Description:
heterodimer, A: 120 residues, alpha+beta, 5-stranded mixed β-sheet, 5 strands, 11% helix, 21% strand, B: 500 residues, mainly alpha, Ribonucleotide Reductase, subunit A, two-stranded antiparallel sheet
Amino acid sequence: xxxxxxxxxxxxxxxxxxxxxxxxxxxxxxxxxxxxxxxxxxxxxxxxxxxxxxxxxxxxxxxxxxxxxxxxxxxxxxxxxxxxxxxxxxxxxxxxxxxxxxxxxxxxxxxxxxxxxxxx
Amino acid sequence: xxxxxxxxxxxxxxxxxxxxxxxxxxxxxxxxxxxxxxxxxxxxxxxxxxxxxxxxxxxxxxxxxxxxxxxxxxxxxxxxxxxxxxxxxxxxxxxxxxxxxxxxxxxxxxxxxxxxxxxxxxxxxxxxxxxxxxxxxxxxxxxxxxxxxxxxxxxxxxxxxxxxxxxxxxxxxxxxxxxxxxxxxxxxxxxxxxxxxxxxxxxxxxxxxxxxxxxxxxxxxxxxxxxxxxxxxxxxxxxxxxxxxxxxxxxxxxxxxxxxxxxxxxxxxxxxxxxxxxxxxxxxxxxxxxxxxxxxxxxxxxxxxxxxxxxxxxxxxxxxxxxxxxxxxxxxxxxxxxxxxxxxxxxxxxxxxxxxxxxxxxxxxxxxxxxxxxxxxxxxxxxxxxxxxxxxxxxxxxxxxxxxxxxxxxxxxxxxxxxxxxxxxxxxxxxxxxxxxxxxxxxxxxxxxxxxxxxxxxxxxxxxxxxxxxxxxxxxxxxxxxxxxxxxxxxxxxxxxxxx
Lengths: 120, 500
């Protein structure tokens, strides 16, 4: 049973279905071992946006406050999509490479260990 | 001729058990429709032992006495301008969190106990719940009155009720109680009556009230004392409920254990804000969060669960994780509020050097290694005139609704990510505990009103964050929020104290 309810076959309204976001989908992005940002960021993005646009136009808006952000060598970054290793394609739309509504993208920068090397 | 005055025993019988009657022409099941659907089996309500022998007339008499004393102290507090006696104006921000985050929960508790006080089939349980319901209403009223004095002199108090329903971080306590109140009456009693009132309430009230005492806030101390005898009754009721359910039928044990697992996890997540308050917001510290957790949960709670073992009840699931998290959560939470200080309805600040050293001393395993560097970075940025306010909005946990700020306990600088797919949609969680709760009742939690997603859907005005804060949250932007340094609260305090 998907809920204990007094109403038989109770169904909840899905508040965060993609149709509610006015054409956007939500994508979360987190930088592993960099907790200057207390949590991954959430972005409402057009599913047709390319990965390149996400990385160069959307992400810097929030991540660039980090002193290590401009030192990132993007060719040596490893990515995870929804828990699995992932190789992004720069010119391909998010939706065409499996980055869907409420997907989580994580990136890690093995040579950069955060402020004072402390994962900050 | 009958005696004019009833003896205590007869009065008690007439005003409690005798209020029930046999149903001769109506179906008792229709009168108590909420009693069966949770799967709890009650074989004999008469086995309920009234946890406190109090009748309604005595209740009114005691409460009126307490009220008279309490309001005399509030009056004296106001007439003596006693807000000037608090240790430091930073302290007042803890009280702002209490009024916006905790007092509205007292009101929700009043509503919840009124419901169980109607729906239980046993009259003893109904009367006990009705009295607790009235207590909770009294608590919200006395808290509002105690804090109304501060509202005249400090910012951030004016829209506490409106804010409770809308502000991003207040969705955490609000949704906690909404979850309990939309459960069946038995789960509500295990959630609030047992898990919260019996085991976790000490971790809420003792820190706030002793924090108030250590920081010169006699109004808050006094409402705390005045609530204490009520709280003692609530704890007795919580314990009676769990023992009664476990003794009624062996099939209840598994259901009750599941609720204990759920509500201890939810409770420990909710108390993160208390952890932060104790370690970072009290200018005069009482004890560290870690010490409080050890005294009130590990020692007191551990003894209780030893006692419940004879019914087949074990320690709440993930207690091992919670034990490790006591070293981390206060630091993670204050960093979250500090970096979102532009979107909070109270002020935030970098701890003083003395406070940083106190934290090192209290958290020798974790503070210098993981958390002091964050404050070094914040100080560096502030010195450059770039006080750090994060941009963008954070990912939230679907169950507890807290930003995804918790980390892996075997890798404390790594965000803890959990997710599950239900009916084609992906849902995210901060922990296995929160994920388990969703997976057990997904049709409930697909309805989570997650503030960040609601903003994205255009349901909170905006789209500028400033407009959301002022128009949707009713914050006084530039006054209620931002850093303590340079705030109107701080400037007024300096004027009152005659310091530059």
